[in-house]
Design a protein that fits this description.
This protein is of the alpha/beta class. It folds into 2 domains: 2-150 and 286-334, Quinone Oxidoreductase, Chain A, domain 1 (Alpha-Beta Complex), CATH 3.90.180; 152-282, NAD(P)-binding Rossmann-like Domain (Rossmann fold, 3-Layer(aba) Sandwich), CATH 3.40.50. The chain is built from 11 helices and 17 strands. It has helices spanning 42-48, 98-101, 142-145, 151-161, 179-189, 203-209, 220-225, 243-248, 270-276, 288-300, 315-323, and strands spanning 2-8, 17-23, 30-40, 65-72, 84-87, 90-92, 112-113, 125-129, 134-135, 169-173, 192-197, 213-216, 230-235, 250-258, 279-282, 307-311, 330-334. Strands 3, 4, 5, 8, 9, 16 and 17 form a 7-stranded mixed beta sheet that branches. A 6-stranded parallel beta sheet has the order 12-11-10-13-14-15. Strands 1-2 form a two-stranded antiparallel ribbon. α11 links the parallel β16 (307-311) and β17. The radius of gyration is 20 Å and the shape is globular. 47% of the residues are buried.
Length: 338
């Protein structure tokens, strides 16, 4: 058994406390990673608060982990001690189901979330199946790479999965932790990019992230002007929207794709779906191959999230900063257990 130092919550809304847990012997296909940086995602707040009814306390959050391999099981392939890797929302999957064998590991019904029934990256070390420990390109800055492993792949995956062409028009609704990365990826993909935001103060910043046009999501007249213009609209917010109005912005065969965890039911007018042959869809992060492709794309195009840094010892301050909506636009914790 090995002792690992971490930060954990013992109940909904409780502040994180220093926590030491005994890790079992390393499994044959696992790697152990010395955490250097870990992104702070809104999903960490949801797990800490048990918003989704799946939290197991004490919970060690953190699923945007960047570090180096320090130990490897005897059946680990393709990774070396000292190699820079990242771990995102999933730390494992069964590797034998139809989804895993087909390359859709992130859709595995037995996938192991990094922070549900598993100790995450707010710790000095974290473990993952070797397939889910994604090598980091040399040109990627480790200090800002963490949010790419969850937020980044969440907005990159739809472009890849649905074969979006560089000649197409893509909208991003919500310019926050997810949306600002969505603008960067869609622009580098070659698309004409339209940002939808409820905050006029973010217009110029949205353009700096890659938006060619900015539309107020609160302005019905502005939404009507966008009618029949988008091939895809990626919704990154987790709040109710004018779904009928957003659906009208799509061209025939257009797709409204949801990656924000909206908990309320979405009223979608069937008649618009039918006559426009439109689609509504969603997706959870991405497969290991998609993650690796995203990281390579980000390194090639110099895409990085806009981040604020906190030492991990100030994790509760960082959580409050995020909870208050002050993060611009992602928070990264630097491990400081020594």
């Amino acid at each position: 058994m090995a002792e690992i130092q971490a930060w954990a919550s013992y109940g909904p809304t409780q502040q994180l406390q220093r926590y030491v847990y005994d890790a079992p012997p390393l499994a044959a296909e696992e790697v152990e990673i010395a955490v250097e940086y870990c992104g702070l995602c809104h999903s960490d707040l949801s797990i800490i608060n048990d918003d989704w009814g799946m939290t197991r306390y004490p919970v060690v959050p953190g699923h945007e982990v960047v570090g180096r391999v320090v130990s490897a099981g005897e059946h680990v392939k393709g990774l070396k001690i000292g190699q820079k890797v990242g771990v995102g929302w999933n730390a494992g999957s069964c590797m034998h189901c139809h989804q895993c064998l087909g390359g859709d590991h992130n859709l595995c019904l037995s996938a192991q979330p990094t922070i549900v029934g598993h100790c995450g990256g707010f710790a000095e070390r974290v473990r993952a199946h070797w397939v889910w420990a994604i090598p980091l390109p040399d040109d990627l800055d480790m200090a800002s790479a963490g949010p790419l492993l969850c937020g980044g792949i969440t907005v990159f995956s739809p472009l890849l999965t649905f074969d979006i062409k560089p000649t197409q028009r893509v909208g991003i609704a919500g310019i926050g932790g997810l949306g600002h990365m969505g603008l960067k990826f869609a622009n580098a993909w070659g698309c004409e990019v339209i940002a939808f935001t409820s905050s006029e103060s973010k217009a110029e910043e949205a353009r700096s992230f890659g938006a060619h046009h900015v539309v107020s999501s609160r302005d019905n007249a502005a939404l009507l002007k966008m009618a029949n213009s988008l091939d895809m609209l990626i919704v990154t917010v987790n709040l109710p929207m004018d779904w009928a109005g957003l659906l009208k912005t799509l061209k025939p065969n257009g797709r409204l794709h949801v990656v924000g965890a909206v908990v309320e039911p979405m009223p979608i007018p069937a008649i618009d779906l039918i006559f426009g042959q439109k689609s509504v869809s969603g997706s959870p992060t991405g497969s290991p191959v998609a993650l690796a492709s995203m990281l390579e794309f980000a390194a090639r195009h110099h895409i990085a999230p806009q981040v604020e840094h906190f030492p991990m010892s100030r994790v509760n301050e960082a959580l409050e900063h995020l909870r208050a909506g002050k993060a611009r636009y992602r928070v990264v914790l630097k491990a400081d257990f020594d």
